[in-house]
Design brief:
This protein has about 900 residues and is α+β, with helices and mostly antiparallel strands. It has 32 helices and 28 strands. Strands 10, 11, 12, 13, 16, 17, 18, 19, 20, 21 and 22 form an 11-stranded mixed sheet that branches. Strands 8-28-27-26-9-23-25-24 form an 8-stranded mixed sheet, sandwiched between helices. A hairpin with a 6-residue loop joins strand 14 and strand 15. Helix 10 runs antiparallel to helix 24 and helix 26 packs antiparallel against helix 31. The longest helix has about 40 residues.
Amino acid sequence: MSKLAAGRPVAEAWARPADEVLGALGVARDRGLAADEVTERRRRCGPNRLRRIEVRSAWRILFDQFRSLMVALLGVASALSFAFGQATEGFAIVVVIAINAAIGFVTELRAARSMDALQRLAQVTARVRREGRVEEIRAEEIVPGDIVLTEGGDIVTADIRLVEASKLQADESALTGESAPVGKAVETLPAEASLTERSNVLFKGTAVTRGSAEGVVVGTGMATELGRISSLVEEAKEERTPLEKRLDRLGHRLIWLTLVVGVAVAAAGVAAGKGVLLMVVTGIALAVATIPEGLPVVATIALARGMWRMARRNALVRRLSAVETLGATTVICTDKTGTLTENRMTVVRIVLAGGLIAVEEGDAGRGAFRADGGAVEPSESPALDALLRTGVLCNNASLSATEGAGVGDPLEVALLAAGAKAGLDRQRLAERFPEMREEAFDPEVKMMATVHEDGPDYLVAVKGAAESVLAGCSRVQTDKGEEHLTDDERRRWLTRSEGLARDGLRVLALAHRGVAGADVSPYEELTLLGLVGVLDPPRRDVAPAITACREAGIRVIMVTGDQPATALAVARAVGLVDDAPAAVIQGSELAGPERPSEDDRRRLLEPAVFARVTPEQKLRLIALYQEAGAVVAMIGDGVNDAPALKKADIGIAMGQRGTQVAREAADMVLKDDAFATIVAAVAEGRTIFRNIRAFVLYLLSCNLSEILVVGLASLVNAPLPILPLQILFLNLVTDVFPALALGVGEGDRAAMKEPPRDPKEPILTRGHWFLVGGYGGIITLAVLGAFALGFGRLEMPERRAVTVSFLTLAFAQLGHVFNMREPRSGSVRNEVTRNPFVWGALGLCTGLLLAVVYLPGLAEVLSLDPPGVDGWALVLGLGALPVIMGPIFMRTTARYHSRPRAG
């Protein structure tokens, strides 16, 4: 067969023997593909990814800027200007349309590119064998013929014909809709086997839930079963967050209100004798100025920038909606190992039938075993030697002989390190006791087993939870030999296990059994070797983070599979519970009635520590909290945590020790597995919502002032204090730049000193609408006062008086940005004054305002004259009114719009 044919995906691979499929693909299982062959196949078959729905191109984003009601209204105004012979105004409105489109284009393009770049941070990987070496590559680099190695917790990255499988199960619900895991094997199947019957193939996009396997890639990209299904879908809907939907609803309600206002103002002006064109254009300008067309754009920018800030703090947000929900989180359910603790495990105690042995800390090969003050040599203690050997054999991790560093589960690395201190090397042991099969760890039985050749017979090595292993033991190993394990002795061993757990140690029991065949049940008639106590010290940054959560009104709940005593000891060490006796709920207590009584619900939800919890019980716990009205964040790392991560309001996966299945199911991935990172992400979520609220409040109060200024002047038959083009200019300058600055600020440092907001709380409450009216009235008073003084008292020409009112309105709106601080923050040092973007926006706007007044061409278009010394005195004096009266108004009305602190 030619290389060209060998590189093609294989049809009906399930109906052909594995060796035949390997031959058809031109690959040897033990060697894999060569580098040049990989390059050639990738060139022919393309990258291993589904056809992407392309993100909006720059041209599409630009075109979309002209598809809005605002642009349509401006177009009408421009056409009317040309029709009435006002070419200058017509061209000026066209320029306004162009500037507005440019601003929207730049901001949307940056937001879209930011989101795209963030999504590229999370890449699914796969382990493949190439040129005889196992390496980890990005999933899209896989080609037909690659030899892939997979195990429980992995995402399947291509269609794979199995060559070898051990206790393999896969979750194919994403492809077939079948919720139960599907068993997999290597046997050849009939050609007519349906998709759900192809048990010798792993399909792209599914998840391995148990066991391990090796196979050859028979289809990539769109040539996979998932690709064929996805080709039937024309386009995926763009994700829109609840916050963006609420902003859209707010915007649409305001559109009709402002159109009515615009028509009313225009009609009032015409009735008062003003020119028809002037009042029509003025009405349109008012409507344009008050339509909050920038709300979704600023929301997207604020969310995207918040995601970048979270990414810098090691929190990778995979779904945009998670950012806003984080700020409303009320309960965080966290694992213990690696989140509250360092996940740096060390075997420190070993309990044998003959007594307690302390394991001194030290690098691999340098530690020592001590009992009663003297050294213990493992070679002289058959029980200790057998226990350490079992811990090394029943293990999937690896340990560097030169550096002492481990790769794999930290608990298994700790067992390898303990064995290395006794001179036990896993590779040499594997040569002496070749592994025949593995019984993968099952969270239901809480045990794992491996079966090894031992001369003509076989050796079963078992490790797991103490109560589970003890239940399968009938004998116990001593230095004098094996003895019968009585029920009383079994209870004493459980008491020893609880004693280790009370000291904060994670406890494992190890056992073995000699058998005549490799296919025996591994968890029966075992011989207990002893207990291992593993120290995993608490993270030093956890206690302050838990304190911060408590101050923020967030409950932290430990949910672990460990023993109650171990969980309680760690909970005390990190400050989750105090030294007083604390209740610990065991997972079995969660398996009660579907709808517990109110007393039972309260009893189950009051404790802060849940131990011996299974994945199914985690689902039950989350449901109980959600039924009680809580917004729940759930932390998980294993494949069995995926359902809980999906059910929680915020699913959080571990980036270092988490499985790919968990990371795909989660809304957020912690790259450093640190609990403190979650707290920082919650604070960021609160900041983002507050920023958007401040932006909306600022924008609407400014827009209201423009309506009131023109509307009141029209009603009293006075000259217009501000002209249509001037309104449009302010809409571009004082609305856009300060509002964007508010949207991307780092927020109030006291955000975590207050309770979580209600997730159903609107962007603007009744109290905030009261602020909109009050602030709008203050700005209106300043502008009308400046115009009345200039036009009446100082007898300025109308054009110069209009310039004064225009500049007063502009500077009053710019100063109004400082009223957007939190009510409890300082008047001088607060989240607004600390925001460098605000100062940049104010500087830019001031420069633009001076330019349109003093540059002849721009001044003529906007009908502006230099205001003079007396004019500037009015502008600066009355323009400062919002800065002076705003804080007073905020304090006097604080009870209507502020929220209580936590605690």
